[in-house]
Amino acid sequence: MIEKNNSGELTNKDIRKIQNLISLLDVPFTAWGYCICEGDRLPLKFITLSESSEKTDLKDFALNNASVPTSPAHYFTALVETLNLSAPNLSVKHLAFYGKDKQQLGIAFIIGKPNTRITNTLNIIVTEIESLISTKSMHEELNMLKVCHRNELSNQKKHIDNLEQHLQHLKSENARLTRQMQYQLNHDSTTNMLNRLGLENAIKACFKSRTIIEGDAYLSVILLQITNGERIQARIGCEGFDTLLSLFEQKISKTTPHIHYYARISTTELALTTIVPSLDEHFLPNLCRQLSSVARKGLGFKDQEVHFHVFMGVANSYHTNNASQLINNAYQAAVSCKESGSLVNTYTEADHEEQKQFNQLEHYLLQAVRNDDLILHFQPKVDLSSEKWVGAEVLLRWKHPVLGDVSNEALIHMAEQNGLIVEVGYFVLRNAIDRASEWIEIAPNFVLSVNVSAKQICSPLFADRVLEMLTHNELPAKNLELELTESCLVSNFDVAYSNISQLKQSGVKFALDDFGTGYASFSYLRKLPFDSIKIDKEFLANVLYNPQDKTILRSIINVAKKLDKQVVVEGVETLAQHRFVCAEQCDIAQGFYYAKPMPRDIFESQLEKQYPPPKLYIIR
Ligand code: C2E
Ligand code: CA
Ligand code: CA
User: Fold this and answer.
1) pLDDT tens sequence across 208-242
2) How much distance in Å is there from the Cα of 611 to the middle of ligand 2?
3) Neighbours of 199 (CB within 10 A)
4) Helical axes 493-506 vs 462-473, angle rounded to 10°
């Protein structure tokens, strides 16, 4: 309750109460005042003008009527004055002042109109202020909320913008890295040509081209094997060789516009693709000629000129629409170049069939080797003077449940190609040495001959392995003979020589097989310590009807005898041939006339018949 005094002025208690309430308004500038009836004028009594609580009697302001308001106080004064003048009967008025940016600067209350019941008036002020306080705080809260919300929104927006930017950056970085990874995955890192995977992908894409689908053209892969590549690389280094390959690529692209993709599929092998117009039969031969001439012309490297020797294998898409198969076909065609000696070789339907059969056979052989399904047959070697079996040749036999008898030529050729020959070879040697160690009990000078292929004799540990097997089976080295053909020796003469010397020193015998069929049979006889030669059966086949073959055979026997080599003749099929080789003073003969290759048990029983155990005489 507001009290009143007699003069109508507010008591100090009233003023404090109002002041407390006003302070709750929490505005930078407040002023309040009240007036009591004093004639016409409204003498104002202001308690507070500003936050600084500077008490000023505004009467002066009101009277002086300040001109232009320069501060909230001035505004206030001016307004109060206006009020005084224009609305002298106003009882309670509150005024709010706002600055330029609409913030509230101050608030004032004027109690006008002479009012005898000042308590009522004051109560009205209190209510008014209280309502102001609540609206103000609500309003402020709302404003604050709005501001907060706005700030938060704008912060969030900023944050989202940042995130979006970051995401965008990550996306583009990711795309860049994916592109880089794809590139590395598909390219050779040093020459930047495609690699094998890249080539396959490029070919797959080509297969979708309209011209190929509609048959106006086909895709060809030309596989270039740089046969002297490894030697060049050893001479000029890997980096130098990479540079040369890039140079080669540039030269080809300058010479012919027809190559679409260049790929490096191994260190010394490139694969190129081209689209061949179906009706232009000269297109590919011309292109291959151009390629080989670029290779032959030479490439400048530092101050040297380097020439590439290339074999080219060509495969065409009408045989397969499988990219990987197409490259393999080209590869196979290139490998055949080595065998045939031609510079360019094209994959054909026949190759296709052969490949299929080969794959199947290869699969079966692998199984056979793993299951020990291979067996050995033995063909006796007959001493022509005594007509006794002095040895035997071990011949591999493979009877496949589906394919039947597989010829040794096919078997050995395949095993040589896929490297299985080493495994097959050790199988033969192990079993042969095992047999021989038993047979020397029957015939102590018996010699078992084993065929050895190029890959075996050229493998560095061959001699050690053979000697190990001999020791393991306690077979004297002199009872083992290894038959080598000339072709065995050409591939890596040095390693072969070292194996042969080591084994020879231990007492193992050596025979030069298929003598007379190669180019340099005699020269090998000089170079290597062979004990015997096996004259090829071709010579004997026609010897009785063909005087020339007879002459050749005679001279071979002569030379061999002069070189102190034992002469073995193989392929003796008839009595006439037997008589002939006896007359020509061959030492040992082998052939169907004496016996065909036979299984172990039959051979063993025959051998026992030839070498009956000495009769035991019991002396009493
Ligand atoms: P090769 O070393 O010249 O073996 C002699 C071949 O002539 C054998 O053929 C044998 O059965 C055959 N033959 C023997 N006597 C006569 C005859 O009177 N007339 C005719 N026409 N042929 C006769 P096979 O068993 O088919 O072996 C063929 C080739 O396979 C062998 O020729 C040899 O180069 C190779 N070979 C056989 N077994 C092995 C082996 O274990 N390892 C290696 N690396 N090659 C083997
Ligand atoms: Ca042989
Ligand atoms: Ca032979």
Assistant:
1) 877 777 778 899 999 999 999 999 999 999 999 99
2) 25
3) 26
4) 20
